[in-house]
């Protein structure tokens, strides 16, 4: 409050000085004709006075600034002490609250962690059980793969496997009467083809023509070709492809020589390759399939191709059977037509007899009506009298 009063007094003093300067300036203007020396003296006195006022103002301002700084410092210390005490109290309360919250959180975290650990351990145990089961299945699968490798590494077992696969396809599509197994297709030869399709034919004494189908599986060459492709070895791929081409050509010549015998067989045979991968590699060799068809009359087929071929043959069998049955159906229709005339005569006779019977029934109905009208004129007896006269019992039966 004292500082504010001092500032107010200082402001009033400055205002008074300014007012005095203004008055002097007016006096100077009104006294233009006075002695200039006197005015200079007055100006010097006024300047001296202003210097005194400035020094007083500076000393008073310095004193007031020191007092203000001291008051601000005192207030700052007091405020700092008060804030420090309040912060200390708040810190104590916060620590207590945090301890309580920490205890609750620790309890919940411990419970949740225990539950999660139990669940995870259970899942891990289940996963380990499934892993052990999968390892067992993998071990069995590995054994099966080894057995398959041993099977495919043997030439005889490879042939049996291809033959079984071809037999399964034939069994799914055709009936047993439409093909033969291990048939001799060439006259004067003892070589037996694995399967021979019976194509209906009017030539020959058997009534059908054989279509020879033989399975081939050069698994050793195909395995070397796949290994070279996996290693990105173009030279190995080229060598294996060349060897595969030579093997397929040799097998095609063998099938053509052993099993094709026109007109006992068709003028071509089929070489069945049991895997689509092997079939694709054979088709990838340029000109090989065309050479086999043109030079040896042997068509190369994979599982999908042989299925399509057999399906088309089955449709042909159905059409041929339908054509054979159509003649029998025409004979049956002719017999039915001849018997239908007799059946129509019998129907006319029955109709005439029914008309006569109907006329007789109408005559009987007419006579019954006449008798009933005549009977109405006769006096009626009581029920007991009529029963006694006709000897009819109470139950309606005759005594």
List its traits.
single chain; 399 residues; alpha/beta; 9 helices; 7% strand; elongated
Overview of the structural elements:
InterPro entries: DNA_recombination_RmuC (IPR003798). Involved in DNA recombination. Belongs to the RmuC family. This is DNA recombination protein RmuC. Pfam families: RmuC (PF02646). This protein has helices at 2-30, 36-153, 155-173, 219-230, 234-259, 276-284, 288-295, 303-376, 383-390; strands spanning 179-183, 193-200, 208-215, 269-272, 298-301. A hairpin with a 7-residue loop joins β2 and β3 (208-215). Strands 1-2-3-4-5 form a five-stranded mixed sheet. It has nine helices and five strands. It is of the alpha/beta class and 399 residues long. Helix content is 76%, strand content 7%. It has a domain at 144-322.
């Amino acid at each position: 409050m004292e500082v504010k009063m001092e500032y107010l007094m200082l402001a009033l003093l400055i205002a008074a000085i300014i007012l005095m300067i203004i008055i002097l300036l007016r006096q100077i203007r009104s006294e233009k004709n006075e002695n200039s020396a006197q005015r200079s003296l007055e100006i010097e006195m006024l300047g001296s006075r202003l210097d005194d006022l400035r020094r007083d103002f500076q000393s008073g301002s310095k004193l007031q600034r020191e007092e203000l700084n001291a008051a601000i410092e005192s207030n700052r210390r007091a405020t700092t002490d008060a804030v420090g005490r309040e912060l200390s109290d708040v810190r104590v309360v916060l620590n207590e609250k945090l301890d309580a919250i920490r205890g609750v959180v620790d309890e919940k975290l411990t419970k949740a962690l225990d539950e999660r650990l139990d669940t995870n351990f259970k899942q891990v145990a289940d996963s380990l059980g499934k892993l052990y089961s999968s390892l067992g299945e993998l071990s069995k699968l590995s054994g099966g793969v080894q057995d398959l490798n041993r099977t495919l590494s043997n030439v005889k077992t490879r042939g049996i496997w291809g033959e079984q696969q071809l037999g399964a396809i034939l069994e799914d599509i055709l009936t047993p009467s439409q093909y033969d197994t291990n048939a001799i297709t060439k006259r004067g030869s003892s070589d037996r083809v694995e399967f021979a399709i019976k194509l209906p034919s009017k030539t020959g004494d058997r009534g059908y023509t054989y279509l020879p189908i033989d399975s081939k599986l050069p698994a050793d060459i195909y395995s070397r070709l796949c290994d070279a492709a996996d290693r990105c070895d173009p030279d190995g791929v080229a060598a294996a492809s060349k060897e595969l081409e030579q093997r397929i050509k040799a097998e095609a010549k063998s099938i053509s020589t052993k099993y094709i015998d026109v007109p006992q067989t068709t003028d071509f045979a089929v070489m069945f390759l049991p895997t689509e991968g092997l079939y694709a590699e054979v088709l990838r060799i340029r000109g090989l399939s065309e050479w086999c068809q043109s030079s040896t009359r042997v068509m190369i087929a994979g599982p999908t191709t042989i299925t399509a071929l057999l399906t088309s043959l089955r449709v042909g069998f159905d059409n041929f059977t339908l054509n054979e049955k159509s003649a029998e159906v025409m004979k049956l229709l002719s017999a039915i037509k001849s018997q239908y005339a007799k059946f129509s005569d019998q129907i006319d006779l029955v109709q005439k007899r029914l008309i006569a019977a109907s006329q007789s029934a109408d005559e009987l109905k007419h006579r019954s009506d006449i008798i009933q009208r005549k009977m109405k004129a006769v006096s009626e007896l009581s029920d007991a009298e009529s029963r006694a006269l006709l000897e009819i019992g109470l139950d309606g039966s005759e005594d």
